[in-house]
Amino acid sequence: MIKRTPYWWVTLFVGVGAISGVGAQPNASLPDSSGESGVQSLSVVTVRAITPERFLAGQKRQLIDSTTLLQFRFGSLTDLLTFNTPLAFKNYGPGQLATVAFRGTSANHTAVLWNGININQPNLGQSDFSTLPVAGFDRLAVQYGSSASVVGSDAVGGSVLLGSGPVDMSGLRVTLGQQVASFRNSQTQLGLRYGSALGRNWQVSGKSFAYRSQLNNDYPYRERRNYFVEQSQTAQRGLVQDLFFRHKSGNVLSVNAWLTDNDLVVSPQDTVSRTRTRTQATRLLTSYETDRLTLRLGWLRDRFDYAVGNFNQNDRTRTDRFIGRAEREFALWPGRSAMQLNLRLGGEWSHFRTYTDGYGGQLITENRQDLYALLRLQTARWLVSANIRQAFVTGFNPPLTPSLGAEYTLLRREGLTLTAKGSVGRSYRVPTLNERYWQRLGNPNLRPENGLNAEAGLVATVPLSEYLRLTADATVYRNRVDNWSYWNPDFGYRVENLQLVVARGGELTATLIYARNGWQMGTRAGYALSRSSQERAYSTYAQDVVGKQLPYVPVHMATFNTWAGYGKTRLTIQTQAMSRQYTTFDESRFFNAVVLTNVLLESRQTLGPVAVRIQGQVNNLFDALTFSVKRNAMPGRNLAVNVIMEL
After folding, report:
1. Confidence check: pLDDT of 27 > 70
2. Distance CA 593, CA 581 (A)
3. What is the sign, positive or negative, of the torsion defined by CA atoms of 5, 303, 154, 65?
């Protein structure tokens, strides 16, 4: 069982307090200028601090729409991104660790941002996507390619951006969701959204979202097609709390909290070899944003407990991060509507404190600072960005990382648009705390990984008729990463800067949408080619793997989603196809190509004041045989029923 920790109740109390204020005056509105009760609209605020893509012209960006977010409401980011992006995941099993290979890079080369803050676990340098719930966030975007000049460390292959925003509403809205799935798996969600006036000049809005899932994975079989199916149990719970205080001038004070608790037991029936991994995270962030100035303070704590056999004897890791950031934006071309030129200057400071058994039981501290300048030029046809960042790390020397990108509208006529884009930029990755400080195997003298990413592409929107529209996006890229860190087996797995990896490829996405007379139909198809290989022979063994595909990076990936809806009913078919994945550097072992298909049927109904959405889904429709990283068979066809009620 998972024990509750006191900080859960502190954050929940904050949310309930805000809800109580809303409930007292559900129809309240801001007073007008004369002091009379009336409606007064607040100034529009662009929350730029959590949208780094604003300064990344020329790079591919993918926004996940609200319909897709709702369809994957009971899933993790692994599920959503698998069927909607060309990202490849290394999955250890249902409810277990899931890490991403973005454009042929490793799990350490993808930055995961929560409201603008990198939440990768600093000891491991990566995020477990199985612990990131889709339903906890209002905005999800995928930034392709290096964005180190804007995001900082880790953004080598790409970035995943999670965000929350103010709720434009008055009163209280309650959402309750329940999922019942195969193998005695279940999930429960409770969400509250609220908004109200606070006196003459302020408005408060927010969201409280709590979730709990129990993945018992009680399979009716122990093997599939002669491959062992590993037993595991996962208990997840979390709380997301967002509060926004908005002044009529447009200034916004926000408070964001995200608490997670993930308890995983593998082979629970075997009391000798069973393993337990419990990860907990506390993330608190407060921001104050005016029209030009942004100030942020944050505290993040990551806890990691690991035990084998006897769960009373744990290996422990606890890491705290204290973050401060200040940004100021300047309009360098005021009063000229035909051209906008903006400069954003900023700095960030982070202090790390980590205690890990693997570091010899001593407290390790580290300071990191970043200074950056972001320039954005926009005209009727041009969008150009030029950025530069310099990081400073205790006992370390990260490189200067500039970037330059541009987009040009080649054609704009009667709904038809064609835009060319391109970018080039440097990237870097500060080694993880494990890579630097782990006893005997860590290397405090590691150099930062540094890369050079270049990409170019075309984006087109074509209205085929009054009811039919086509959008297409084609991108090619090349990413060269030097000083790639490698736990070298030739020297007892001591980590060293040995590898030179070159990732190159292309992506093509096309979406066709039809809407007429209550019908909505569409198809979205995507294809990605990714060739990622080691290009430096640093040992006798490395000579045999030069030019060969990196493990767990498929060369070919494709997604195909099609949907049809009429009125309140919608049918969606989601398909992902993946080519062979090699599991060794010399390509001697591999997982076969696989095609996964899910089907989702949903309908919306109204029962008095309650809106009800019912979803029925079939996962792995054709019972395809897939494998975890440990070469265990993943479960076959399975079912789930989701019910979401909103009042």
Report:
1. no
2. 7
3. negative
Q: How far apart are CA 310 and CA 325, in angstroms?
A: 43
As a whole number of angstroms, the distance between CA 168 and CA 229 comes to 47
Which phi-psi region, left, alpha or beta, contains residue 505 (left: φ > 0; alpha: ψ -120 to 50)?
Answer: left
Q: Which two tokens stand for residue 378?
A: 């926009």
Quote the pLDDT of residue 489. Answer: 85
Give the CA radius of gyration of the chain. 25
Of 59, 472, 62, 115, the C-alpha closest to 258 is 115
**Residue 185: how many other CB atoms lie within 10 Å:** 21
Give exposure, 154-180, as e/b (b: 16+ Cβ within 10 Å): bbbbbbbbbbbbbbeebebbebebebe
Which residue, 497, 495, 524, is CA-closest to 511?
524
State the pTM of this model: 0.89
> Out of 30-39, 63-72, 133-142, which region has the weakest mean confidence (pLDDT)?
30-39
Sheet holding 117-118, edge to edge: 61-63, 139-144, 158-163, 110-114, 117-118
Q: Of the candidates 102, 90, 98, which has an alpha carbon nearest to the alpha carbon of residue 59?
A: 102
In the DSSP assignment, the letter for residue 15 is: H
**Residue 180 tokens, joined:** 């019942």
Strands 638-646 and 275-289: unpaired
- The pairs formed by 391-394 with CB atoms below 8 angstroms and a separation of 24 or more are 391/152, 391/153, 391/428, 391/430, 392/368, 393/366, 393/367, 393/368, 393/430, 394/365, 394/366, 394/367, 394/368
Check residue 490 and give its pLDDT.
82
Q: Quick one: CA torsion of 164, 210, 637, 2, rounded to 10 degrees?
A: 130
pLDDT at 643 over 90: yes
Count of helices and strands (H, E) across the chain = 6, 33
What HEC string does 549-608 produce?
A: ECCCCCCEEEEEEEEEEECCEEEEEEEEEECCEECCCCCCCEECCEEEEEEEEEEEEEEC
Run of H or E residues at 82 = helix 77-84
The one-letter amino acid at 386: A
Helix (H, G, I), strand (E, B) or coil at 365: strand
586: left (phi over 0), alpha (psi -120 to 50) or beta: alpha
| Cβ count near 26 (within 10 Å) | 12
Residue 179: alpha-carbon gap to chain centroid = 23
Q: Which two tokens stand for residue 370?
A: 């970043």
From CA 451, how far away is CA 84, in angstroms rounded?
27
Residues 423-449: tens digit of each pLDDT: 999 999 999 999 999 999 999 999 889
Counted residue by residue, the chain has a size of 647
